[in-house]
Amino acid sequence: MSNKITTAQIKHIADLASIPISEKEENSLRDAFEETLDVISELQSVDVTGVEPTHQVTGFENVLREDIVNEENMFSQADALKNSKHTYDGYFVVPRIIDEK
Amino acid sequence: MKTDNTNKNKYSLVCGLEIHAELKTNSKLFCGCKNDPFGAEKPNIYTCPTCLGMPGGSPVANKKAIEWTIKVGLALGCKINLFSKFDRKNYFYPDLPKSYQISQYDLPFCYDGVLETSFGPVGITRIHLEEDTGKLLHKTIEKVNSAGREAGLGHGKQVSLIDFNRSSVPLMEIVTEPDIHSAEQAKEYAKEIRKILKYLDVADCDMDQGGMRLEANISLAPIDKNNPSSKLSKLPNYKVEVKNINSFRFMEQAIDFEMGRQAEILNDGKVPTQETRGWNSVKSITFSQRTKEDSEDYRYFPDPDLPPIRYSRENIEAMRAELPELPAQKSKRWATEYGVEERYSKQLISHEIFANWLEESFKICVKEKIEPNKFAGALINKNIRVSHVMSSIIAVEEFKKLSQTDEVADDEIISVITDVISQNNDAVIKFKSGDTKVIGFFIGQTMRKLGKKVDNKKLGELLLNELKK
Predict the structure, then answer these.
(1) Would you give the DSSP letter of residue B355?
(2) Strand partners, B242
């Protein structure tokens, strides 16, 4: 394997994904990440001269909707809240996330 | 803390603004849910799998929201990206159900525009379209409902409540170049933007509700002592972003406060920390907001759910042709065509419908040999109460009645004036001691006694003559 991943990089990625990881997981992730990067490295050897860059393969463009309210598709308040662990007065509830000054 | 004059001569403000405005489309940006977060009677009644970020949600972009964004761009002299797309901006926050916000990264719909202010032009860097987040409410739970679903909440527990009625409402962001050099200019720019958005009828811009939100990027650059009028050769090496500004006055105060705060730091030979600060409107200060140790890493990438958007030159030119004449252009034209002062027209032009009504009225004024400027003045001073549901002909008639004067001989007026003066010694003393405001009182008294309507200007002149005797 030619690509190397540092511990700091793994921690950073875990932070961005908001997933806490153990030291053991860190090691197995290191192998997995390096393997993935090796695949990318291999892809980079492909000759793409004359190939237009794209970020999608469907070829679709301008898939838009008219500005119309679709009542039928809207949830009732009860349905919207149905899968929530905690609700209050019609709201979703989460632990306090801000220290207001 | 205000910048004292020494600091004002030493540093020049370098400021760019970011303005967010919610578009008033019927439906949300990526789903057919109702777009009416402020009018909703209850929280979480306008949601669906897409704007709640549930598996299987499938966003489809609202055509009108895109066209309105381009319309605003054209009004602000922007270039339009004929090919554009939506991107995912990834971060975690409870008001963001998908853990990413659909926004635009490198291909905004509009770029490179300009808005003229009386202090100079302000360059528009870009205008892009994104989805708004849900609304958070921070609360201490007082009473716990007995319902089992709410059982996890204890008395006095500090929580945040989320309402997703606003989730995925179309939000337009207008970003400027750092071309703003005073708090007054920032205010003028922001007010003009609001005026244009309201005039184009694409946004209500209700600042109290958060329908329009302001952010200012503020830094100071030293002024070259030998050549104070020279343009800044390079931008400062830091900037402070002030968020949560929800009124024009607060924005002015926040900028003034930051200028003072940053000048003090610079005077000490230090560089202000690059950070995000909030505005505390009670204490009238900015405060440092907790910043993450890591620099923000949003990992933008094109949203695979949303195919790109392509317009032809012809499409854009057709949209440009539909643009109404904007308030600033209209003011200028009215000044030359009807002699209406810009200070009047700037106050009067609010909506397109009313502007058209005004112009119709001015035309009738011209026909009736009435100065449109006087008619405009009467509207501003609310001497005539009119609305655009009233026909212009009737409004001008009202004004004619109001400004009609009776033919009265000067002698008759002067004799009434002498009476009024002799009966109001107190006011005469006030006048003689320099209180010129009592003139209004004398005019009113004389008019009443006279029982006829005379030209205000003429009456004023006669009064002054008598009072000075």
Answers:
(1) H
(2) B216, B277
Rounded to whole angstroms, the Cα distance separating B417 from B140 reads: 68
Shortest alpha-carbon distance between residue B216 and chain A (Å):
19
Q: What angle do CA B416, B419, B424 make, to 5 degrees?
A: 125
What ipTM does this complex have? 0.91
Give the Cβ contact number of residue B54 at 10 Å. 15
> Is B449's Cβ below 8 Å from some Cβ in A?
no
C-beta atoms surrounding B454 within 10 Å: 20
DSSP conformational letter for B437 = T
DSSP class per residue in B298-338: ---EE-TTS--EE--HHHHHHHHHHPPPPHHHHHHHHHHHH
User: What pLDDT digit, counting tens, does each position of A36-73 carry?
Assistant: 999 999 999 999 999 988 888 888 999 999 999 999 99
Q: Where are the domains of chain B?
A: 5-131+168-315, 336-402, 410-467
Q: In this complex, do B153 and A93 lie within 8 Å of one another by their Cβ atoms? A: yes
User: Contact B287/A101, CB-based, under 8 Å?
Assistant: yes
* The domain made up of B410-467 is a member of CATH 1.10.287: no
Contact present, B273 and B238 (Cβ < 8 Å): yes
Q: Which of residues 141-170 of B touch A (CB under 8 A)?
A: 141, 145, 149-150, 152-153, 158-164
Length of chain B: 469
pTM for the whole thing? 0.82
φ and ψ of B263, to 5 deg: -60, -40
pLDDT digits (tens, 9 = 90+) for B274-327: 999 999 989 999 999 866 545 578 999 999 999 999 999 999 999 999 999 988
Q: Do B32 and A89 touch (CB under 8 A)?
A: no
**All domains of chain A, ordered by start, with CATH?**
7-43 (1.10.20)
